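S.,

Sequence below, as promised.
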Amino acid sequence: MKKLRLLVCGILFLGIGVGKGQYTVLHNFNDTNGATPMYGPLLLSGNVLYGMTWLGGATNVGVVFSIHIDGSGFKDLLEFNNIDGRLPTGALIISGKKLFGMTAGGGPNGNVFTIDTNGGNYKNILNVSVARGFDPFGTLALSGNKLFGMTSIGGLYNDGNIFAVDTDGSAAKDLFDFNNSDGGGPHGAVTIYKNKLYGMAGSGGAKNKGVIFSLDSNGNNYKVLLNFNDTNGASPAGSLTLSGKKLYGMTKGGGVNAWGLIFSIDTNGLNYHDLFDFNLTNGAGPYGSLTITDSMLFGMSWYGAGHGSGNIFSIDTNGNYFSDLYDFNSATGWQPTGDITKLGNVLYGMTNTGGTYGKGVVFRFKDTSMTTSIHQLSSSCMRIYVYPNPSSGIFTLSLSNPSDIAGVQTRVEVYNVLGEKVQTSSLPSPLGEGASFTYTLNISSEPNGVYFYKVVAADGTILNTGKMVVEK
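The prediction came back faster than expected:
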């Protein structure tokens, strides 16, 4: 019998809801200064953000730019011209005062380049075809003086590859060639941990829905950690985010509602968990990666949510407390295909389209939900065990009550993935100090799927929350 143990102490967050914040457009792309940023987050260095756009500039094949975090000082650092590269994707990375990035075309099949942070000394350091790949659609990763990247096609089997090159452009090496059965068509970046590379391929694998993989940094010991199969996700288009020995990521398809999901998996490939399923109402089809701060994950979905144009969201690393922070719209930017860059409680990012000229925007979002949706409790905790989980719809809640909420009237509320309340039940009242008891929660009349419960005090304080799965 599987038990889910939840322990919530100190500061408790509210459950599913819509967050509050201040959204500001810092810059509207207009073709001349760039257009349609693709797949990449903004790079933050000091008080300056660096980024790239897929199109725009003098020859309409992309630009490199910088902008201050307050929206001032926008600078067009480089306009690609087909010869030195075209169609840049992903994010820039920084080493000292040098930026490194990739283009999907030019040179002639994509390249790795470097440029100073002031826009000088542009250099194409590698035509990726030298390393047997073509058309990279992602971001480089840096370890020491070694850059690692992936291509979406090419390699020995034309399913893309993983390559390495020194920061001076020397020692280019094809580390691994995808062959569809073990993955293909990767986007995003590899994540480096203890001489291992971790990443995702958007197609291929046992079910042709993509894979999660690991590889030694020298190119040995490639291993498929997980085959996506629709049920557990499909077609990832971003990178993995590492915290401790756990990796977090998203898929743009698959899951309970077929609109994509958020997951976690250990670096050894064990303990895969579907943390949250998008359902169109709360977002759908994320083309990007997650940003982690402490135990909270931040990300964006490409479409769905309030205006059908995607959203900014947060969720904790256990898959609870999902909050729709902001819904994009055509006037202020929509359909983001990248990641969140976070500084304190301020989030920065780009949208692929929308804004004044319909070419995308650079935005800032100040997250005020941390101060408007938090209840303070003492260091004591309410302990809840939920079992069996999954079940046919009948769950047992085993509760242990701390002294700081002794005598408090409480109830348990159950919500479906649409945020609709499907049941409310009163718990024994008043709860005594140190009381422990079990309570049977019956939602067997509800259809299969994921449900969320909240233990709520009479004044509305959230005492605990968690997730249950009905499988009949």
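Confidence is low (pLDDT under 50) at residues 1-19, 370-380, 430-434.

Coffee later?
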